[in-house]
Amino acid sequence: MKLNSRLLQDKVVLITGCNRGIGKAILDKFASNGAIIYASARQEGILNEEAKLLSVKYSTRIIPVYFDVTDSNALKETFMKINKEYKRLDCIINNAGVMEDALIGMVTEAVLQKTFAVNVFAPINMIQYATKIMKRQNCGSIVNISSIVGTNGNPGQIVYSASKGAVISLTKTAAKELAVNNIRVNAIAPGMIDTDMFRSIGEIRISERISKIGMSRLGTPEEVADAALFLASDLSVYITGQIIGVDGAAII
Q1: Inside any domain, residue 230
Q2: How many folded domains does the chain comprise?
Q3: Which of 52, 122, 145, 200 is deepest in the core (most CB within 10 A)?
Q4: C-alpha separations of 236 from 41, 82, 138, 244 in Å
Q5: pTM surpassing 0.90?
Q6: What CATH number corresponds to the domain at position 104?
Q7: Contact yes or no for 16/130 (Cβ under 8 A)
Q8: Parent domain of 195
Q9: Distance between CA 46 and CA 90 in Å, rounded?
């Protein structure tokens, strides 16, 4: 989708997991629409060059911030930095996530703890910190990245699907609680998207999965980014508590 206007001009946004896949596509899409972006990743320095390139290319400001989303102290420091530098926060994108597949009976405590720490507990903490700023300005948009397996389930993904189902539930609850503050909370549930993570399942399994997609192709990270742009922008000011599927009519 190409738009002539810069839908996020001068809006302050925090995006997690910007170094690859969907997060990287959202970073580029939001920068092209004029957002001032705090782009996060775990690995120190990994976004420095990309931030410089995008800042110049789109005449905006991209600020790399490095932290583990499960580190509550690092989260707090990041939000304090944003508040100090801009005194506002218009949108957060909870994109960072992990996926480790395991059949029932093979699930370990370590996988449970890690998956829920990153995919569920971290977004809740992000929302808590973000809304302290958003409530003061009486507006804001929170976009959580869920998954089609969170809505439909999938064999071999009991932990991952449970965590993404939790994202859907927390999205709906937060939307109801924060509507009085004019803060919107929505989620995107991508289907089979052409990312390095998805490609890791192998070409044979990819072909099998494509046969179950109504549009007969994988989605692109840019198509998920388009949905995120809509939910972050003023085009969706009366939309909250919704789960937007970006899946090409996939069946799983």
Answers
A1: yes
A2: 1
A3: 145
A4: 27, 24, 16, 12
A5: yes
A6: 3.40.50.720
A7: no
A8: 12-246
A9: 25
Give a yes or no: residue 77 inside a domain: yes
User: Which two three-digit tokens encode residue 127?
Assistant: 């929302």
Q: Which tens digits make up the pLDDT trace of 175-215? A: 999 999 999 999 999 999 998 877 777 787 888 889 999 99
Residue 147 in tokens: 């998954």
Instruction: Give the amino acid at 136.
Output: R
How far apart are the C-alpha atoms of 243 and 170, rounded to whole Å?
Answer: 11
Identify the three-state secondary structure at position 145: strand
Active-site annotation holds for 66:
no
Confidence of residue 68 (pLDDT cuts 50, 70, 90): very high
40-71 as b/e: b if 16+ CB within 10 A: bbbeeeebeebbeebbeebebbbbbbbbebbe
1 located within any domain: no
What backbone torsions phi and psi does residue 215 show, to the nearest 5 degrees? -85, 0
Residue 192 resides in a domain: yes
* Catalytic, out of 38, 58, 129, 160: 160
